[in-house]
Structure formats: C-alpha cells, structure tokens
Amino acid sequence: ERKRNTLNWSKPAGAQSYDYTLKTPAGGTASGGTTTKNTMDFTATSDGVWSFGLTTHIGSQTASSSFTIRIDSTAPNPFTVSVAQTSDKDPFPVLTYPASDATSGIDHYEIVVGTAIPISTTETSYKLVYQNPGEHDFTVRAFDKAGNVTEAKGQFTVVGFAGPTLTDVTRVVGIYEPVTVTGTAYYGATARLMIDGNQVAEFAVKENMTDAQRKSMAAAADDNLVVEWQYTVKVLLAPGRHMVTAIQIKSDGSISNPSNGLYFNVIGTMITIGKYSVSLIILIPVLFLLLLLLILLFAYLWMRTRKRLASRGGTATNASNASLKAKIDAELAHLEKTVAEDLNSTKPPTEVSKKINQDISQSKEKLDKTV
After folding, report:
1. What is the mean pLDDT of each run of 10 residues along the chain (371 residues)?
2. Which residues pair with 97 in a beta bridge?
3. What contacts 344, CB < 8 A, 6 or more positions away?
C-alpha cells in the first residue's frame, strides 16, 4: 500500500555498516545513504515496482544484495457482471465477472446474493446454487493482491412456475382443532403448506388426492397433471384471523410461485377434545366443579381414616389398661392378705398394721380412678 513502509534485513556476523539505495518505479533515486541499523523506513509516493539495493561492510569485505518492492494502492479496474440463464425460469444463474488489476493482479472474488453468506472464489465465472422465484440482488467484489477492492452490483430474476390453487379451508375452528385445506397442484409435486408464512406441513400431492380425484384418475398419470388434493393439519394457533398459503416443489427441486391465500378464524372460546368441540365458557366451570368435588372427597376420606385409626387405638388402649388394672388388683390383694396373715399370727393389729391396710386401700382407689 502507499503508506509508510518498513524494510528489515538480517544482520550477518561481523557486519559493521550498510550502504543502501531505494529507487522509484521510474528509476529515480528516492533515498540512499549509510546506516548501522538493519532496518529502514520509507514512504511510497507512487504505485509500481520499487527496487532496494543493499551493500554490507564486514571488515575490508563487502556483500551486495537487491530486493523488489511492489507498491499497489489502486483498486482493481471497474468491471461489469453478466448473468446467463437458459430461460427466465432457470433457477441456477451463472455470473461472469472478468475483473483486472494492472499493478498486483487479482487475488480472489467475493459473491453475495441477497443476504446470503459471501462466496469466495478465484474463478471469473460462478454458477449459483438454486435460487427461489423472484428478484435477486447481488454484489461481486474483486480483491487484488494488495487487498484493494472494487465491487460491481447487479440483479437477476427467476420466474417460478404456477403455484398451487387453494379452493377451500375450514373457515372457523376452535383452539387446536384440525384445519382442512383443499386445493389443486401437480400430481408429481410436493406441496408445502404455510400458515401466516410459517411452514406447518409438507406432503406428496399424489398421496393426498380427494376420493373423487382418485376415481377419475387413469392407471398412470403425468407428473405435470393438475389434480385435486385435500390435507388436514393440526397446529396450535392463537385466537384470531389466520391465512393459509402453499407452494409446490417439483421432483427436480424447482419451487413454484406462492399460491393464493385463504383466511380462517380460530375461536378462543372453543377447544377440541378428540372428535368433540367444547365451549370454554362451559368447560371451565365444569372443571372447577370437578376439582372442588375431588377436594371434598379427599377431605371426607381423610377424616374417616383418622376416626378409624383413633377408634382402633382407643380400643387397644382400654384393653391394655384393663389388663394392667387386673394384674395390679391381684398384686394388692395378695399383699393385703399376706400382711393380714402376718399380723394375725403374731399379735393383735397395731396402729402400724392399720396404717398399712389404709395405704393399700387408698392405692387401690387411686388406681381405679386412673384407669
């Protein structure tokens, strides 16, 4: 490029100084002199081939070398792009762009069609991949070996063949209710359905013909025969108005123009369950009532279960208490009998024996109350 440039060279062992000469493309001397450094800066004032001469001094000996410097700050020459198509329906245009650059030569080309990813090539002619029907803008950029660029713009048109014709659609549907579309298309084509511009289905036309069309068909049919088809698509759509369109794709991959559009409405107060459509105004209260009944049923079963568990636990506790009381009563009776026999066998009852009998009686009374 035409800017400040730096030249560097290796420094041989024992090198003491260097004599240099820089000559312009016209042969004139741009600069010269002696330096002890192995680098030099210079500014190119014109494009072309510059020459640099260098003499190295090592003691009493010298060694000379020369170098070529190509300066190119000029973009490639302006050029035009030609477009070749076998017909206006040809979806594979060939672009030709014979660019040239006098100084450093063309390095490569960059091709951009619409908003597609740029294509890099060194060829001066390029066959594009399949292009959809419609108008297409393109840009071809030519880069020289110094990085300078010149671009040319153009446009080509691909005329698509006739698209399907849509004849009928389910006009009113509920949320997630199937939408049935009827139309005509080529027998050997693949149809692609779009709702609001988004693809929702793709199917072979010959496999989705109407019954009436099948009955009227011959054993063998031409792929370009226009036949009637019908297809049902199930897709979740927001309530409101929607448009269905279609295109058809031939076996060679060529795509048709879009079909006409048909409108249908999705009603937000309807929902489809199996084969039945139910109003949400009715469905929501019914669901709420069912939920409430389930809650009440759960509460009833829970209370009933708790009562049963409490009843079983109380019966077991009473039985256990009665058994314990019987054992204690037996022990107290045995103790009372033993004390009475011991006292009667020795001497008449004293205050101590009376006290013991009283304590036993009080213990039995407390036990009866506790149990």
Report:
1. 78 92 88 91 84 92 90 92 92 95 93 95 95 93 94 94 94 88 96 96 96 85 92 91 95 88 86 61 80 91 86 63 72 69 57 66 67 55
2. none
3. none
Model pLDDT, residue 49? 86
Closest CA to 231 of 185, 267, 188: 185
Using CB atoms within 10 Å of the CB of residue 220, give its burial: 0 to 12 exposed, 13 to 18 middle, 19+ buried. exposed
Q: Tell me which residue has tokens 């897709």.
A: 235
Residues near 90 by Cβ (< 8 Å), separated by ≥ 6?
Answer: 158
Instruction: Please give the Cα distance from 83 to 126 (Å, whole number).
Output: 10
Indicate the DSSP class of residue 298.
H
Which of 312, 336, 332 has the alpha carbon at shortest distance from 324? 332
Closest CA to 248 of 287, 290, 206: 206
Beta strand 125-127 pairing with 119-121:
unpaired
pLDDT at 262: 97
Percentage helix, strand, coil for the chain under 3-state DSSP, each rounded to 5: 25, 40, 35
List the Cα angle 310/311/315 in 5-degree steps: 115
63 in Cβ contact with 18 (< 8 Å): no
Q: Most distant CA pair in the chain: distance in Å?
A: 159
